[in-house]
Input
Amino acid sequence: MQRTEIATLGEFGLIKHLTEDIKLHHSSSKYGVGDDAAVLSYDNKMTLVTTDMLLEGIHFDLTYFPLKHLGYKAAVVNFSDIYAMNGCPKQITVSLGISKRFSVEDIDALYAGIRLACEHYNVDIVGGDTCSSMTGLTISITCIGEAEAGNIVYRNGAKENDLVCVTGDLGGAYMGLQLLEREKSVLKGAGEDTQPNFEGKEYLLERQLKPEARRDIIQQLAEADIKPTAMMDISDGLSSEMLHICKQSKVGCRLYEEHIPIDYQTAVMAEELNMNVSTCALNGGEDYELLFTVPIGDHDKIIKIEGVKLIGSITAPELGYALIARDGNEFELKAQGWQHC
Amino acid sequence: MQRTEIATLGEFGLIKHLTEDIKLHHSSSKYGVGDDAAVLSYDNKMTLVTTDMLLEGIHFDLTYFPLKHLGYKAAVVNFSDIYAMNGCPKQITVSLGISKRFSVEDIDALYAGIRLACEHYNVDIVGGDTCSSMTGLTISITCIGEAEAGNIVYRNGAKENDLVCVTGDLGGAYMGLQLLEREKSVLKGAGEDTQPNFEGKEYLLERQLKPEARRDIIQQLAEADIKPTAMMDISDGLSSEMLHICKQSKVGCRLYEEHIPIDYQTAVMAEELNMNVSTCALNGGEDYELLFTVPIGDHDKIIKIEGVKLIGSITAPELGYALIARDGNEFELKAQGWQHC
Output
């Protein structure tokens, strides 16, 4: 593969190369890349802002994370935060710190992934910063979105007797990571012909390498006229996020292990690794599913939405944070899990 | 000094520690730290967004950059970008990548600087991200500001015969950096009692270690009813920024070396280092002064504003980018300078 050193373009040259054919699609994007700041117009709407930093060696390992996928994921995790407010992502800024190890072609691949995510979710790239780093790759993306003032859903609105809902299935991204780490260590020192074996585990790879944000659920909730009382996305694990909602809402909860949605491939992989699959689903991060609560009166509407599972209910704060195991035993829900940081 | 390991707090603990007593001051800051995204309200105003990433070893050297100053500067450089659009900064998000080398006290010092800058410029901290890094310190700040739609000043509006104006003086921050680098190499291997000698050069240190954004000038321009035709802040050097304005405005320029404002300490330091002081002023970066153009009809108003110097004029594009030296010789203005990246 061709390798063009970034130094041949320089900072301004690289920015131009990466951004010159970017088009703006939203009426709220008034001016994008190319000035001291981007100009946005959010008349009569609330503006949502979220930011995420991804660091090589901490959040991703390039030995198995293709740069295009990494770019896609870096953008999507930000969109997910805006959807988790019941909003719609509209713009991002992209800051990159790039060491000499990376070529222009590498950064093109990364940017192609970011742009693909932006196309897919209809988001404009309106600015950023590109500079060299001493070591490794640093990606910092800020996403700006919009919502009607009355539609925003915070983490602190869950009420006693609300239903606890989760989208998709959990633990898959974590199992995908375990799989990639296992293949990496198997391949270390193996001959060049050795190929990693991912057969029958494609879903786990996809969960880790190309997560999607649940725009579809946000749209379906709106169509069904359901406004969650509290919501967040699951980046650090179900237990951790459930406790955030409970603590910020000053309520307790009862979750049922048997109702936590788990994909077949996740279960098989956990078995292979001799891990408890529920523990993975409770504490594995990066699924980017939505965790939310709705009033019990919405029960009949919510069960009609495909991809949403009821996993428990909100209780009085003095009842604490309970996990009811399959055998009926009750445990205290704890955030054990997954912390990059 | 006490040293508390960040691991004793964990990610969420550190975020709480850093942000729990943050208060929001602006009516546009509806909800700050503590949810998936911050919520802002920019009714009837344009929203401005800018972002800057600072990486250890590239943008700063902690052997002579105190963390509190670094925090202050990291925030101010973002405010400067918003002022350069003729806007007003209102909110920031702060993302930090922190290696094990740093203690809670270190990050407290950094954050104290960020908060001091926010107090000074009346800006709310509304969100961010904090995570560990493999090596070094990474700071990524995004600033959101506001402006009336009709007041925004881009880089692309300079017209033939406009006056070229610059605020403050130039080259000081670059000379401050040279001074710090010199003392660093002098002190290497010297006894512990050896103290760096900065006497008579305090202004240069301040320019490098504690730059300010020119809010005062933006306010005075508004009071004098002057709207620049083009504007940007000088982070990469006067030559480089002037060329940005000319190219984006499709015009030429004539700048006069003798009118470029230079402080006495900058001149003395350049002499000591046997450097051409005009070259330093043209190509030294990080002064965060404003470079802007105004219609010639504003001449009498602009010369009344203290801290603004007229350094040249805008010409037809075919006349190119001219620098008139003190001896009357004409050179082509070139961006040679200062690139971190």
In short: Chain A has two domains: 6-151, 163-332. The mean pLDDT of chain A is 94.
